[in-house]
Specification:
9 helices, six-stranded mixed sheet, single chain, 261 residues, Rossmann fold, alpha/beta, four-stranded antiparallel sheet
Length: 261
């Protein structure tokens, strides 16, 4: 069953068309890898899905619910933006942690802010906050950061910071976890730490979209791969088809350049 349906998404910045009629679907419990050269539209696509950018055309549906439809003016309003974003957990390439908060505080801050809107918050504040804290601790333990919960970002390695960011993205239990080049800011050793965590999530059937330049990782983890170029989906299919036996010339040229590099 498709948990995400993206239909004919377009995004323009001035006269530049960054996304051109992008359509795909994502099955629940599967991992989708998006590959392509810099400037191909990969990150913009993720930002549109997470409503950090507003598409100029097309529609986005999650679990059968229309989150965005360019043909419906109401879907462009900002009042429901936060609710829409809760469907997606975002992990950025540069971590984006709050430097003034500990690892645990970074993971729990969003949950604590949202909890204030609960009808029973005043009555059950202590137990609600304890539950959020315990969940945050469990996630950091899952990330192998049991001894780093009270450390601040500047006291953590890049790999540790990215694992905190993954825990934070998981904290609100999103339908889909999105990674935007999660290892691009890391050296090879720390890259391995983060990829190990993502592999574990894939084994647990976490629904994921991963923008990555790690071809071997994409082949290993993804159930499906999309190759983008110039704002278009040029080719999509299973890893064996797209990476090992590409049909399109643009896909072949991209993979040849990657291999040579």
């Amino acid at each position: 069953m498709a948990i995400l349906e993206v239909n004919n998404i377009e995004k323009h910045f001035g006269n530049t068309k960054v996304l051109k009629n992008v359509s795909f679907s994502l099955e629940e419990g599967s991992a989708l890898a998006i590959i392509g050269s810099s400037g191909s539209g990969k990150t913009t696509l993720l930002r549109c899905l997470n409503f950090l950018e507003t598409p100029n055309g097309g529609s986005i549906r999650v679990k059968g619910e229309t989150l965005f439809d360019a043909a419906q003016k109401n879907s462009r309003k900002d009042k429901d933006l936060r609710t829409k974003r809760l469907h997606f957990g975002m992990v950025f390439q540069s971590f984006n942690l709050f430097p003034q908060y500990t690892a645990l505080e970074n993971v729990t801050i969003a949950g604590k802010l949202l909890a204030r809107e609960r009808d029973d918050y005043k009555l059950n504040k202590k137990s609600i906050l304890e539950e959020i804290e315990n969940h945050g601790r469990e996630l950091l333990i899952q990330m192998g950061l049991e001894e780093r919960m009270e450390h601040y970002p500047h006291q953590l390695s890049g790999g540790q910071q990215q694992r905190v960011a993954i825990a934070r993205a998981l904290a609100l239990e999103p339908d889909i976890l999105c990674f935007d080049e999660p290892t691009s800011a890391l050296d090879p050793e720390l890259t391995g730490e983060v990829l190990k965590v993502i592999r574990g999530l894939a084994q647990r059937k976490t629904t994921m979209i991963i923008v990555t330049h790690e071809m071997a990782f994409a082949r290993d983890v993804a159930d499906r791969i999309i190759f983008m170029d110039d704002g278009l989906i040029v080719e999509q299919g299973d890893p064996h088809q797209v990476i090992d036996n590409p049909r399109e010339e643009r896909t072949k040229r991209f993979l040849e350049r990657y291999t040579q590099g």
